[in-house]
Structures are given as C-alpha cells and as structure tokens.
Amino acid sequence: MNAGQLPRWVDFGLIPLLNLTAAFLVSGLVVLIIGENPIEVVQVLLWGALGFGEGVGFTLFYATNFIFTGLAVAVAFHAGLFNIGGEGQAYIGGLGVAFACLALDQVVPWWVTMPFAIVGAALAGAAWAFIPAWLQATRGSHIVITTIMFNFIAASLMVYLLVNVIGEAGSMQPETRTFEDGGRLPFLNDFIPFADFGTAPVNLSLVLGLIACFGVWLLIWRTRLGYEIRSFGANPTAAVYAGISPVRTIVVTMLISGGLAGMMAMNEIMGSQHRLLIEFVTGYGFVGIAVALMGRAHPIGIVLAAVLFGMLYQGGAELSFEIPTITRDMIVVIQGLVILFAGALEHMFRPALVQFFTMRRLNAAQTG
Amino acid sequence: MNGTPAIELRKINKRFGPVHANRNIDLVVKKGSIHGIIGENGAGKSTLMSILYGFYHADDGDIVINGNKVSIPDSKSAISLGIGMVHQHFMLVDNFSVLENVILGAEGGARLAGGVDKARQELRRLEEEYELRVDPDAIVQDLPVGLQQRVEILKALFRGADILILDEPTGVLTPAEADHLFKILEVLRDEGKTVLLITHKLREIMAITDTVSVMRRGEMVATRETSQTSMSELAELMVGRSVLLRVEKEQAQPSDTVLAIENLTVTDSRGVQVVKDVSFEVRAGEIVGIAGVSGNGQSELLETLAGIRRATSGTLRIGGQVIDLADRIIDPAEMRQLSMGHVPEDRHRMGLVTSFPEYENAILGYHHDPEYSNGVFLDLAAIKKTAQTEIERYDIRPPNPLLKTANFSGGNQQKIVLAREIERDPQVLLVGQPTRGVDIGAIEFIHKRLIEMRDAAKGVLLVSVELDEIRGLSDRILVMFDGRIVGERGPDASEGELGLLMAGVEGEAS
Asked: Name one GO molecular function term (chain B) (predicted).
C-alpha cells in the first residue's frame, strides 16, 4: 500500500477547500490590519460576484477566460510540460480571431464567422506555442524559459502590428476598427430567455469553453493520443520504451495547449471587445496556471476553479468600488494568497491528512 | 564469546503510513562477529539499518550500543557511536582522490594541509592493519568498483567505526571481487570489529557469517548459528514456505535462428564505445544468457536490440528482415511489429508508468494494436479485459486492474510487465534482470514462465547479473566484459570459470 493514498473526495474536495479557507483566513487578517471588517468584506465580495444578474454575468465572463487558459496549462501538465506562455499564446490568438472577423464581418452573419474565428484563434495560439515546443523537443531548451520569452515577444509584436500595420487608419488608438454584427458573438442575454446579465458581456464563448472542457477530458483519458501524452508526462523513459516519440508528443501537446490558450481570445475579442486592442489578456494567461493547479488539471476542477477566480475578479471590482480603502491592489493581494495556498502550497495540508486517514483506516482495521 | 553485545535492539517498531515496516524487532549482535541479516526485498532490512544509522527514527523500542541505551537522531551521532555504513550505492565524489574522499566531512579544521597529512598516516595504518590496500592519490572514478567499495570501508574505519554495516555489498562485484571483500571482512572481524551484512543472497550468508537473522514482512522470524543451518532452511524461513532453489527443465530443442546480430557496435552519449563488435544468434527454443558484471555493456546491448538506443554499426536479422543499423534507425514500436517482446531491466524506470492504474500498463507499447484502439479512441473495455485475463493467468495480486501500479509489490509489478510482453506471443523475448528485487516465491514463477516460453519454440535472450539465474536458465551462456563477448560456455560451466571471464581474465582456450 502506498503511504500517500487518500480517498478521492479528500484529494479533490477537502484539500482544495482547506487551501481556500486558509487563503481567506490570511486575507481576513490582512483586511483586519488595514482596519476593515473582514465579514463585511466577504459579504460585499460575494454579493458583488453572485448577488445580482449583472454580477453573475461578469463572473461567468471572467470564468470563461480562465477556463481556456486553465485548460491550456492542464493539457501541457499532463505531458509534464509547464506552459507559462498562455499569456502570449492568447494574445496572438486574438490575431487569428481578428483576421477572421475583419475579413468576414461585413459579408456573412456571426455564425458563419464563428468557426473561422475559432480555427484562427487556435491556429494562431498553436503557432505561437510551436517554436518553444520545437526547441524543447529537439534542442532541450527549457520550455518554461522559452514560453516566458515568447510572452514578451508577443507583447512587442502586437504593439507593432496594432500601431503600424492593422490599426485603424487615422486613429490614435492602437486597435483595429470595431467589428460589424457579423464579427460579434451573441451575448447569453440575447438567446437565453429570462436571463438578465445586464451589461455583462458573457457570451457564447462560455458554451465553447464547456465544450472544450469535455473535449480535453475525452482527449486525455479516452484517446490513444491522451494515453501517450500521460505516459510521456508521468515517465518519459517508459514512454520511449513503449515506442512513443518524445518529439512528436511534446510538439503535439504544446500545439493543443497553445490552441486552447489562443481560443481565450474568442471570449475577449469576438465576444466582448469586438475589436483587437493591445493588452487585452491582462494576466488571464498567468492566472490560468493557478486555475489548472487548483483544478488538479482535470476539466471539472478547472471549471470550478475558473468560476472561483471569476468571482474574485468580479467581486473584487465591486469591493474596491464599495469600500474605498480596499483598493484594486488589495484585491490582487487576496488573489495572490489564493494562488499561493492553492498552487504553491498545495501540499501543505496533505501530510497531516494522510496521517489522519491512515490512522483512521488502521483503527477501523483493528476494531473491524 | 561472552560479554556485552555490540548492538542490541529491543522491540523496534517503525511504520510508514499503513505499512508496518519493522514490527517488534529484537536483535542481538555479538562483538567481534559477522552477523548476517537476510530477507526478501521489502522485508524491512534496509529500514532497520536506516534506524541504526540515524536515517529514520524508530516509532518505539530501544537501541543499546555496547551496553548503553542510546538514541540516534542522525548519522552524525551514529558515527560518534562507532557505527559506520557502506551503502549499496557508493557515496563517493568521483573526481576526488581516495584521500580527499576519506577525509570528506572529517577534514579536521579549515586548513586542509594538516588534516591531510594526518589522514595519510592514518590511512597507511589502516591499510596495514586490515590489508585494505588502495592508492590514496588515485582518483576514485579511475578505480574498479571493488576498490571503490574498499574506499567506502576505509571511510567508515577512518571515522573510528567499530561496527560496520554493509548493505548488499556484492551486488556490483564480480565473484572474485566478492571473495576478496569477504576476506577483508574476516580480517576486520579478527581484529575485533563487528560486521553487519545485509543481503538477500543465501550463498553469501553461508560463506561468511557467524550468525544469521532472517526477516520476513517486517518481523525478525529467526536467528541461527550459521553452522547450524542450511540454505534450504533459510530460504524457507525467508519465504514462509518451502521453495525450489533449482530450476527444473527439459533438454532444449533449438531450431531455426530467430534473432541474429552481426558486428554490433554502440557508442553512448559521451562518445564511449559501450558495445564493441558483438555478434551472436538466438535460435527458436533456446534461452541464451548473457552473464557479466553490471556496467559491461549488457544494458546497452539490450536497449539497442529493443530499438531504444541507437547503434553505430551492425546488422540485425529478425523476422525475415535484415536491417543495417548504420543506415536505419529502428524504434521500439517497429521492433514490437517484428515480434520482439522486451522485459526491461528496470521496471520502474522503463517498464511501467507507476502512477497509472494497472490496466493502463497492460497495453504500454501495444496501445497501437487495433485490439485496443480504433486509431483515435481507446477501447477501455477490451483493455480491462486483457488486464483481467493476465492478472488471473499470472496470479498478480491484488487482482484489481484499477489499482495504481505503484501499489503492487515488486514481484507483482514484474509479473505485470512479463504478462504484457509474453502474452503478445513474440517470436523473440528480450529479458533484463527478470528477478531483480523480486521475492523468492515470484522468482520461481517467473523462471517457469521463461522456460515455458522456450519450450513453445520461442527465442529468449536473458541478461542478468545473477550468475545463479544465468546458469539455471540458459542453454548457452555468453559472457560480456568491457563491451565485448569474451566467451561462450554451456550451462554446466562452473561459477569459477564464468567468474574469471566476467572479470576479463581470458579463460583457458575453449
């Protein structure tokens, strides 16, 4: 018997819950220190995120971004690769979406544009992941380093493109022209009866994100490719023994990962902004790492973690509006604590729990 | 011999989570004796020694050294109590000299010079007293394994060890080197040192120890005077039932050649030739054994044939195909297509993904078979059915294909690999160290399967560092030394003869 065995519900339920509780307790202390009432803060945060239709809408909108970037990180995780480049891949993904929309928005309805935009987003994101993947697979250049670098390259490239190449002529803004209706995804408000998300831009991309979750689950646990990805991730030597090509596995996995990250741009560009603009990713790619960690690289966990971070984003915005002493920066502190406890300190409570459950099992075995 | 025992352990208990690794262990080791501790892998020998050396702390129980009750929180206090340990995997700095290695951690001051001179004198004294001759200025990586081990022993003695623990010391030695080690141990004993020898080899226990204690499943099941016991009694005590120590088999009926290698040369990543111009063939219905001390190119040979490692030159004939290895890169998938099974030497590193449930490992390498996948999706039902069948046929325990592979014992993990490779019914089976870390009961089972494979007119190429295994199973024995095949012998070759070949000493003209 492995000493580290825990019941599944503990592994996937109790531990994340404990981590979260710890994060909120410490956050509460920070709030106390700056002289506010933590209980009140929690109330405002929860109300802001879930208390009214528009709040829920924004929470879901942000969650959609996190689903895509979280899935991207998770797929790479399964192959033992740490894709820090979600930020850049999503940014470049915007390019693919924008090209499809700019080309088609004046001639066809949105549902014709949509598949082209999806393919464009995925291809652009995948292309941006390809070079780091190739370097890792053939030259051994560490993918963490190269994907971080590619985030910077993406940022600079996009500024150049938006200012000098595809920016709207005659405008001082580094952005493209606004898409017509043929380049806009419908808001959930528009096609779900009785839904009232107010002005929240939550849109069809949420459905796309959930489909992507199912797709990733199928890929990882039900396909031969997923089997190869997991084998390679868990034991590269055994994978080679089994005739699985490391080069192919690394490249294919990173293409999928980059494609998923790129699809985040569907939500922001085609779903909400309706134009390509600079810095629309603003950290969603990085938070995706925390989402994947917290969600245990499993699609269901990722959806839950994405909604949690959506709540923090939206509730946090509401909070800084309602309680002026809690600034935007305080919200970042709270998010940082959640990431710290859920991600970096993931195994903090584990040893104690393992001991507890082992003792219980032993006692049960002795008395039973 | 009377007087206070050197070591006395009383009711030692150690748990790792649900595993009770040491259960109420009592042990008395007489001063100035060689005391063997024998048991299967996982019996708790290493845990017990780690407690004695301060790596682990016992949950309860007492340790008494030379009559004084002590606590050993770390290896430093073990050393100060006069306990020295020679690890299975040497703890030496390869590019340091012998002298530098010996004083490492006991330099005796910030300035090296004084300590070094003193150490040199002390080394000379130790060498004379115990016949432990090593050149103090030799660089460790240039020394043969046997001498490196001697440096480890010197290291312990230099720190004033009176009690010496040796953990599986002969695993990396040739028979001759092992004999030499035993002579050293006898000298040490005669000079009043106490030696604790951990091993799973019965032969060594019989050859060298004064007293032997047997461990089984975390318990000390018996202690015997070595002169009053026998190999078969010890084996029975280790396993808990009587076992067959010899392999029973009929005369081999070899027929057509199923695998032939000509002039195979392999160069490793450092540019060193590890397999040099090797040629041999394996016929259907025979087991060809490759004997040799580990690190003489056997592993590389096996990996090259399996398609994992690239050859620099050579020709491979298998399944009616002739492959020029200088021109063409073969890969493991292709070799499986050519009906070659491969049980790798290291099942944890290579043969299994231990974090997978058992059934997923049942198809590792065969996941492309149409039986298990339609090209995109896996057929989980078919995979689980295969796993279930293999579990039944190979008596894999616990019989649960959903269990994580890491939670199976070493012997059962090996059976998972064997079942996977044999059940595909390959024409040629490559087998590396099939019983390393496997308990005696499973060894018997695995050997039977390999013989069955042979009797079903398949070719088996067996690589093992266990000479007994090679001699028991093989119909022909090839000996590898320094990347070359230095001799071929029949199964009745004596251990001494093979030992000489393994050590690179040219045998009598054959």
From this structure: ATP hydrolysis activity
